[in-house]
Design goal:
With 818 residues, this protein is mainly beta. 23% of the residues are buried. It is a single-pass membrane protein. InterPro entries: CD80_C2-set, FN3_dom, FN3_sf, Ig-like_dom, Ig-like_dom_sf, Ig-like_fold, Ig_sub, Ig_sub2.
Amino acid sequence: MAYVRVGAARSISLWTLILGCFDIAGLTPASSVTAESLDMVKVSAVSGGDATLPCDTRSPQPADVLLLVVWYKDDVPIYSYDGRVKGPTAHWADDVLAGRARWLSTAPSSLRIRDIIATDRALYRCRVDFKISPTKNHKIILDVIELPEKPKIYDDLDKEIVGVAGPYREDTNLKLTCVVSGGRPMPRLRWWRDEKLVATLEPLEDGTRISMLELNIPKLTRDFYEAVYTCTADNTLLVPPLRVNVQIQLYLRPLLVEILAREQPLSVGQTAELTCRAVGARPPAMITWWLDSSQLAKEAIQKDSDDRNETVSVLRWTPQMGHNGHTLTCRAAHTILDHTTIETSMSLNLHYVPIVKLRLGSKLNPNDIEEGDDVYFECVVEANPPAYKVVWEHNGQIMAHNQRAGVIAGPAHLALQSVAKEQSGRYSCTASNVEGDGRSSPFNLQVIYKPVCKNQHTMVVGAAINEPASVKCDVDAFPPPKNFQWTLNNSMGTVDIEPSKFTVDNIGRSVLTYTATTESDYGSLTCRATNMAGQQMDPCRYTLLPAVKPDQPFNCTTLNLTDDSAELRCVAGYDGGLHTTYIVEVWETGNLIANVSSSVPVWKLDDLGSGKALKLYFYAHNARGRSDITKLRVHTLSRLALHTEAKTTEVQIDRNWLLAAIAVAVCVLVATISLALWARRRQHRPMQYEAPIQTVKAYKGSLHSTHHSPLQPDDKNPDVVPLGKDFHCTHDIERPPEPPPYGAVVSPPVGVSRSAHSLQHDVRSNTPHTPNTPASDAQSIGTLADDRRSVTSGTLSRRREVVTTRTPLLANARESCV
């Protein structure tokens, strides 16, 4: 089978060659196979691509049959197709095609050649033979286009640029060359920027097979930063142009630098954040901070934006008072470009707490200010923002403007008219602004004044015969006096005491050592001091008496007594003219448990014990002896009582509101009861009872007969059973006046009270004039006598009963206490 296929292929090739010989020899076959005129068709194909050579195999006659298709390259058979053979053997190809060609019989029929090479460029003829129709020939010129190599870009130093060109300095020129090798026909070169054509080089056949196109930029400005240029090469429309991109990088100087404004002002001593922004530098600028000509510490934090177009520097800085008015500068510099540093500055207007200085009036001598002089101060304030308030102080106390008192206080000056010694002391002024309060250093004002005795009362000094006694003369003066004069006045006259008998210290005090030798040496002492302001006007006075033992303390009381401590105080008696000590002794059941002395009759005793009954003995003692004793008994509180009292107090405090509410409720209740009683009195106002004359006489006779009654006087009240002399019926106070005794109207007076049975009998009686029987009266008397005996024997308890009775003349019920 393989052999047959080979023979058939050889027969087809032979037949093709024979037909070709006939055509070459110019032999013309019969009229049925006459050749048609040929039209030239041009087909272009890219080297390495595919080419489709068209060949129309349709017969003019519908019933005709395709016999053979033969392809010629430059009149050399290279491919054939036999329509009479089925299967792959119908195709034949020359070795020059090397399996790259394939006949496509479907309309439109064509020869497809793959992987076109340069040698495929030629004149092709397609011969078509039919069974009936004459042979048809088609001529195709195949133009093979050879693509150029990918473009390459070189700088002015003939260095190939890949991707990025530069960076170049701003304002310099730029030259780029696009080089393309090969290509048939010669390619066209073009430069583009952002799809915009910049330069073009048309194809030029110069035999070098190299095409070059230059790009020249005379001055690189900021507009060229990161600009992308593209070089393209093309010599056919069948494929897209070959291209290569390059990006221009530049060094850019900073365009802007500024210190961002702050919402809050800068304050002295407070750390603040300052922000400086630089824009436009490539690479990002380096920011530095300067105070005048000195660079600040490199503590600023620098950060670049995402697009690296903006740089921010944050400086944390604590300004000081000496920085106020100086210049703070922010500089943005390029790390590569020279002479590109730009800067911005701000004058420091710092806010600070007022700086205050207090000055005495320029015409005043601080060492020569006497009572009665006028003194004025000046408060010098330096503050930003300005102070809104100035306050003057004297010894820490705020001074108010008081012109009547001679104090004139203003925001900048203080005047003291007719200054007194009490106005000596420390003066200061305080100024306030939004930053705080500034206080001046205190100025100590010393007013010169004459000596004044510290103790204005006449002091009693006790001195024993032939024993020295010390007398102290204390005066208040400025400056302290250095000269003192002592004078003794007695029955012998007035005598100045010699200076050798007294001393003067540096604090303005003189101590006289005086010894009385006779009774005539006692009398009155005076002391006068003299300083720069003059001599003391009113001397210090002393009464010199013989020294005796002190009087006893009196009016001794406890000020604060607890479970184990006590505070005691007495009134001191005459001290005998000598230094006296006051003593208290504490005794418990014959044991001394405390002995406390004091220079004044005030003591505080501790650790006495709780619940103790103590005896206290008070007395005074001086060099002449001990006084009599004053006694006092006290009981310290027990711890339980103290705790109960504290707890009761706490509960009472906690229940204040409850007690107040109860008090209000009681008041309302009392008011309600008062109103009810008042209404009842008006309702039961007593009637004017009238009785016949005979009845009245009978009543008088009954009164006379009561003296012979065997009952006691208390038993003659018909409504009350007496319970005791100290019992009082509360209803008697509120009851209206009683009507006449019903005994005078109803029955002969018997002077006795009815029993319960007789009362019930009267109530049930239809006639109010039913007389009482003697039996019932006797029964009532017996009952009362029994009750009285019970009371006398103590078996009957004290109580009240309300008994309702009805009389013939009184229809309303009455209440009695029983």
